[in-house]
TrEMBL record:
Enzyme class: transferase
GO molecular function, one term: sequence-specific DNA binding
Upper taxonomic lineage: Bacteria, Bacillati, Mycoplasmatota, Mollicutes, Acholeplasmatales
EC number(s) recorded for this UniProt protein: 2.1.1.72
UniProt KW keywords: Methyltransferase, S-adenosyl-L-methionine, Transferase
Family listed: Belongs to the N(4)/N(6)-methyltransferase family.
Domain of life: Bacteria
GO terms, biological process: DNA restriction-modification system; methylation; mismatch repair
The protein, known as: Site-specific DNA-methyltransferase (adenine-specific)
UniProt keyword Oxidoreductase, yes or no: no
Matching NCBIfam families: dam
Catalytic reaction annotation: a 2'-deoxyadenosine in DNA + S-adenosyl-L-methionine = an N(6)-methyl-2'-deoxyadenosine in DNA + S-adenosyl-L-homocysteine + H(+)
Organism from which the protein derives: Strawberry lethal yellows phytoplasma (CPA) str. NZSb11
Length: 206
């Protein structure tokens, strides 16, 4: 299942999988991002962390209520595709952004977040100082392809028996690891003063 995110390791999986240990107890990911490696491995016991609360909430709602989540995604996607020309689609996209910024946490808001990530310009979004997001629309396709598949979420739920989703400091996650655990650390690139997704905030260091 593809979650658009800057710095995704999906294209690097063939190389990364060559370095994964054969046997380990628990899987730890201090910087979740797209979760591409986690999805390819689907270990039984997992701890996933990210600084972005909306990303963590997306995973929580998606795994807790996959059918409802997928229904919302299709509904919001249809609101874009009901319009044939890109100019009108862009207006629909902006309307979804407004809905997201006014919504409370839950499957509704998480599904909005997923759709916005999919259709954002180069997958980039930014947070304002008040916590709302702003992003540009760039999707222009003649054909509609489903962006979410229920069976992929159900596969993760079936294979991963114990999953912990955290929105905290990466160091606290690293400190939880024990002997024979596997921890995949791929920190965001550092850039002073940034508030982009996939990047550290101005006071963050690694």
């Amino acid at each position: 299942m593809k979650i658009p995110w800057i710095g995704s390791k999906k294209k690097m999986l063939p190389q990364l999988l060559n370095y994964i240990p054969t046997n380990y107890n628990n899987y730890y990911k201090p910087f979740l991002g797209s979760g591409a490696l986690f999805q390819s491995l689907t270990p039984s016991t997992v701890t996933l962390n990210d600084n972005d609360i909306n990303l963590i909430q997306l995973w929580k709602d998606m795994l807790a209520k996959p059918e409802l989540f997928c229904d919302y995604v299709r509904k919001f996607e249809d609101k874009i595709y009901v319009n044939k020309d890109q100019k009108t689609q862009k207006k629909s996209f902006k309307h979804l952004v407004e809905k997201f910024n006014k919504s409370n946490l839950g499957a509704y808001k998480s599904a909005l977040f997923y759709v916005l990530l999919k259709y954002a310009f180069r997958g980039i979004f930014r947070y304002r100082s008040d916590g709302t997001i702003y992003l540009g629309y760039s999707f222009s396709s003649r054909f509609k392809n489903p962006i979410i598949v229920l069976s992929e979420i159900q596969r993760i739920k079936t294979n991963v028996k114990n999953i912990k989703l955290l929105n905290g400091d990466f160091e606290s996650v690293i400190n939880q690891t024990q002997s024979n655990d596997f921890i995949f650390v791929d920190p965001p690139y550092w850039r002073e003063g940034t508030k982009d997704n996939g990047k550290l905030h101005e006071n963050g260091t690694i």
